[in-house]
Amino acid sequence: MSIQEDIQAVTMPEFNANIEDLFARMNPEPQTSMEEQYADEMSDIEFSIFRHKLATIATEGKEVMAKLGVSSALRSEDSGTGIYTACGDMSSAAAGVYYHALSGQLPVKYTLSKWGNDPSVRIEDGDIFFSTDPIYGATHTPDQIAFMPVIVDGVLVSWVSAVAHQAEVGAMEPGLSALASNAWSDGVRLLPQKIGTNFELREDLVQSIGNMTRVPDEQILDIKARVAACTRMVRRLKDLAEDLSSEIFIGAIRKCVDDGRVQVRRRLMEFNDGTYRSTVFIDGVGGDMGLQRIHCAITKKGDKLTVNLEGTSPQNPFSFNAYAAMPVTTLANPFFSYLLSDVPPSVGLLDQIEMEIPDGTCLSASADAAVSCSLWPTFLLQAAAHCATMKMAFDSDHRDKLSATQSANAVGGYGVGVNQHGLLAADLYVDPVNGSGGGARPDADGVDVFAGIWGNYMDTNDAEQLEIRGPYYKVYSRIARDGHGFGKFRGGSGQDTAYVAHKVPDALSHGTMGFGTKFPTAPGIFGGYAGNTTPGAYILGSNLVDLMRSGEWDAPTSTGDLVENQLCEGEYNFDYATYPPLNVTDGDVWMMVGAGGGGWGDVLERSPQMVVEDLRAGVISDFTAKEIYKVAYDPESLMVEADETEKLRDEAREERKQIAKPYSEFIQEWEQQSPPEHALKYFGEFPGTVA
């Protein structure tokens, strides 16, 4: 029996938008007879070597995509590459973003289900497929997937994918569209389809896809970067399969999935049974400042986890929604990067997780919902899941896995227009997104300018590349001051960056997408403070360029410095994290501060020497050192005054005792409070019930 015939015997999932069908696509398929027959042909050592070879091949593909990509997202590795079984189950991945690779199995399974037996399409060696539709295998419309079969001697043995965020996708607004109200204003949506054969792209189709966006050349070149990554992986996997034989390769790549499942079962048995909960909030929904709630309850029983999202806010009329498959892939990061970080990534890791998501939430939206900003509620789910899993780890012998939550305040900017060279250009300002701070640890501060919460393997913008492509340049870029959660160990700080428009030949459209204007989204742990908030800020009609040309100007080094001291003229604006596109021109400035991770432990227990070191480095302000950490020091030498510090901290502890109240009294008062009515427009029932 050929593998094609073998696969036909496997019941592929239907492709509708209901929750059950979406979940079915994420589950590993039943073993084919060939997979079962050859799964154990390798020794343990041989299998370990094989698995490392897969990881190396996936990494090579990801690096090819980053080197050849044009837009910032590809260059900064907001991307993932995956290797899959012949039935479409993820067996290995290299990821700037793990759930990019995990979601890549969805279009593979769609293609097998819909086109595998269709003679007008067929699946042949060298075929190139492409998809952008979030229902059929993407996170949201900007996450575009190229994927290809691996066929050896006429036998389908594997699949590969290359997924990356695209800066401009022809949505209602440039970049992402916060105001999109339905799927048809959300950007280009392409079902999984063949766009090339015999390792060559069909230029008519590729040009047509490019023409659906505001910047065709960038779209086309980035498609080719994804395809180059896939082609490289196909070549490497063919060589590997030919060395081993197709049958042994098929058995080994399936074993990657099954072994992941076994390791996770064993690991989960080491945690105590129980239910662990966390709730976080989004404070911006499209064009409004309304609240959304993301609630996550994780129940561990035996070797299974159940994730219940009851209590999550309903679907909203903007694009801050996600389809139900997205929460499953979202869990890849907190599990792959933290709780199960020493288990090689595969879909087998998630096979031990059951999802319970009510219909109609912002994480289980209907098929006609806009989802281009789906990342925002799912980032919050990641933060909530991280908090819940850390509670589970603390309640076990795995306290080495503990950390406070990484920032989920993802404020990304975009610019679209004619650049200084007279060419159409679109790009993302990924510094505040990819440069978020990591969570504090039991024995160390969080990592400054770590990565986005969804990735952990990404980079920020290269200043020179950004400035070559767009009519703007960076004014400064540094670790944000007070941009983290305080604690005995502080969270990592985010990146603080400002841009100034320069040599704009025509109007440049600039805007931001994000949340966290008022509500921090990186909770602290064991008394640590939450991470900072990230409102939008920009200056219109500034004279900053003229001042820089004068050579006599005290140039700003941070957003705090620029804003507090009003270092240039112009109209200072402070908005919430998502503001609609602005037409900016020469001299206009926009500031973007990345958020930091949550803190760990009581601020009064932080080493005074660590406080003054942060002060010396500009990571915290005088106010924070004196009023939060209660450290006394000489302002000139920054030497700690130990006796005075101890006195200030003792006084602070006494003040805490004076305002303390019994928990029952606190709860009674708390239950009488409610947010203002306008803030609950998209919240759902208040207070409502949670799992």
Tell me how many strands there are: 20
Unreliable stretches (pLDDT < 50, length at least 5) are none
Question: What proportion strand?
Answer: 15-25%
Radius of gyration: 25 Å
Helix proportion: 25-40%
Q: Helix/strand-derived class? A: alpha+beta
Number of helices: 21
Mean pLDDT: 89
Read across the widest sheet, the strand sequence of neighbours is: 2-1-5-4-3-6-7
Gross morphology is: globular
Quick description:
This protein has 691 residues and is of the alpha+beta class. Helices cover 33% and strands 18% of the residues.
Give the topology:
Elements: H1 3-8, H2 19-26, H3 33-38, H4 44-68, H5 72-75, E1 79-84, E2 90-95, H6 98-103, H7 105-115, E3 128-131, E4 143-152, E5 155-165, E6 193-197, E7 200-201, H8 203-211, H9 216-244, H10 246-268, E8 274-282, E9 292-301, E10 304-308, H11 325-330, H12 332-339, E11 353-356, H13 375-394, E12 412-418, E13 424-429, H14 431-434, H15 463-469, E14 472-479, E15 495-501, E16 508-513, E17 536-540, H16 544-550, H17 559-564, E18 571-575, E19 579-584, E20 589-593, H18 608-617, H19 622-628, H20 642-659, H21 663-670
Parallel strand pairs: 10-11
Antiparallel strand pairs: 1-2, 1-5, 3-4, 3-6, 4-5, 6-7, 8-9, 9-10, 12-13, 12-16, 14-15, 15-20, 16-19, 17-18, 17-20
Helix pairs in contact: 4-9, 8-9, 9-10, 12-13
